[in-house]
Amino acid sequence: MSRRYDSRTTIFSPEGRLYQVEYAMEAIGNAGSAIGILSKDGVVLIGEKKVTSKLLQTSTSTEKMYKIDDHVACAVAGIMSDANILINTARVQAQRYTFMYQEPMPVEQLVQSLCDTKQGYTQFGGLRPFGVSFLFAGWDKNFGFQLYMSDPSGNYGGWKAAAIGANNQAAQSILKQDYKDDGTREEAVQLALKVLSKTMDSTSLTSEKLELSEVFLTPSGAVKYHVHSPDSLTKLLLKHGVTQPAAESS
Question: Which CDD domains match (predicted)?
Answer without folding.
Answer: proteasome_alpha_type_4
